[in-house]
Specification:
The complex is a heterodimer.
Chain A lengths: L2 E9 L1 H8 L4 E4 L3 H13 L4 E7 H4 L4 H8 L5 E5 L8 H14 L7
Parallel strand pairs in A: 1-2, 1-3, 3-4
Chain B lengths: L9 H62 L3 H9 L4 E11 L2 E11 L12 H89 L1
Helix pairs in contact in B: 1-3
The chains are: A alpha/beta, B mainly alpha.
C-alpha cells in the first residue's frame, strides 16, 4: 500500500519559513489554540499530510483530550520538534510517556 | 474473588468449564501478542531516543542559523525569495502490520532546486542554512516514522496489557471459583439425595417390621 502524501509544519512564522523552500507546507500559528485548530482542520481534510511537525512551544500547550483526538489514527504523525530557542526536552518526555503507557512505568528514566 | 451469578446446575457447570478453557487459551494468545509487541516496541523506542536527541541538537542549530541568515536580509526580500518554492517534497507511505497494529513507513522524495531565488539580493548564509535544513529533512522524516510507530505500539500495548490483566486476575479466577462452587453444590445435593433415600428406606423397613410384629 503506497500513497503520495506531503509534509506540513506548524510553528512561529519566522522559524518555519525556511522549510517553505524545501517544499514543506508551512502553517503559521502563534498560540497553542491556533495550532490545535490548524491540526484538527488538517486532519479532517482527509490526511493529505502524512507528517505534521509542530514546534515544541505550541505542542506543549495542546490539551490532553485534543492530543488524544489527533493521535488516535495511523496518519498523520504529529511530531513535536524544538524551535530556534533550543529543545526544552518535551520530545524526550513524550517518549518516556509512551514507555510508561506501554510497560506501566518509565523503565528508561534515568 | 466473586462467584458469578448463575444457577448451580449441571448445564451451567458444563458451560462454565468451556468458558474457562477458552479464557485460558485467549489469555495465552494475548500474552504472546503482548510479548511480541513489547519486543518490537523496545527496539523502536531505543532507536527513537537516540535519534530524537540527535535531531533536536541539529535542528536547533539549523533553526538558529536560519534565523541569523534571515535577520541579515530585509524581511520583504526573504519573503519574496521563499514565496514560490520550486522544490517539491513528497512522501511515500506504506503501512506494515505488526501483531494487528498498522504502523507507518515513510519514504521521502525531494524534487527540484531549493535555492529558487535570485542570488543578488540574498545572502550566502541563507543558501547554507537552507541546504542544512534540506540535509536534515530525511532525518526528521525518519524520526517521525519511528515516533509514530512507537506511539501506535504503545497504545496497542496498553490495551493488550489491560486485557491480559483482566483475564489473569479477574475473569479466570472468577470462573474457576464458580466452577468449584457449582461442583460442590452439586455434590452436596447428591449426598442429600442419598441420605433422604436412606432415611425413607429405613422408615419403610421400620413400618414393615411393625406390621410383621
Amino acid at each position: 500500500m503506497t500513497d503520495k502524501h506531503s509534509i506540513a509544519i506548524i510553528g512561529n512564522r519566522d522559524t518555519i519559513l525556511g522549510f517553505k523552500a524545501l517544499g514543506v507546507h508551512t502553517f503559521d500559528a502563534n498560540t497553542p489554540e491556533e495550532a490545535t485548530d490548524l491540526l484538527l482542520k488538517l486532519k479532517s481534510e482527509g490526511g493529505s499530510h502524512a507528517i505534521i511537525f509542530i514546534t515544541e512551544d505550541l505542542s506543549e500547550g495542546i490539551t490532553k483530550e485534543n492530543w488524544k483526538k489527533l493521535s488516535g489514527t495511523a496518519l498523520p504523525a504529529i511530531i513535536p520538534v524544538p524551535d530556534s530557542k533550543g529543545s526544552k526536552g518535551s520530545g524526550i518526555r513524550r517518549i518516556g510517556k509512551m514507555v510508561e503507557q506501554a510497560v506501566g512505568s518509565d523503565i528508561f528514566n534515568e | 474473588m466473586a462467584i458469578l451469578d448463575v444457577k448451580p446446575t449441571r448445564m451451567e457447570l458444563l458451560n462454565l468449564k468451556k468458558r474457562v478453557t477458552s479464557a485460558v487459551r485467549g489469555h495465552k494468545l494475548l500474552k504472546d501478542k503482548q510479548d511480541g509487541l513489547m519486543k518490537t516496541f523496545m527496539e523502536i523506542i531505543r532507536e527513537a531516543k537516540t535519534l530524537r536527541r540527535e535531531v533536536e541538537e541539529i535542528l536547533s542549530k539549523a533553526f538558529k542559523n536560519f534565523m541569523q541568515a534571515s535577520s541579515m536580509m530585509p524581511p520583504e526580500m526573504l519573503e519574496t525569495a521563499l514565496l514560490y518554492p520550486s522544490a517539491k517534497t513528497e512522501l511515500e507511505v506504506r503501512t506494515k502490520n505488526v501483531m494487528s497494529v498498522h504502523i507507518p513507513y515513510f519514504k521521502i522524495k525531494l524534487e527540484g532546486n531549493i535555492l529558487n531565488y535570485g542570488y543578488l539580493q540574498t545572502s550566502a548564509e541563507l543558501d547554507m542554512s537552507l541546504s542544512a535544513l534540506q540535509d536534515l529533512l530525511p532525518m526528521l522524516v525518519k524520526l517521525a516514522q519511528i515516533e509514530k510507530q512507537a506511539e501506535r505500539l504503545a497504545e496497542e500495548l496498553e490495551t493488550t496489557r489491560r486485557r491480559v490483566n483482566a483475564l489473569e486476575h479477574k475473569l479466570i479466577p472468577d470462573l474457576k471459583e464458580t466452577v468449584k462452587f457449582i461442583s460442590m453444590k452439586l455434590a452436596e445435593t447428591e449426598r442429600a439425595g442419598i441420605v433422604s433415600v436412606m432415611r425413607v428406606k429405613a422408615m419403610i423397613e421400620a413400618a414393615e417390621e411393625a406390621i410383621e410384629d
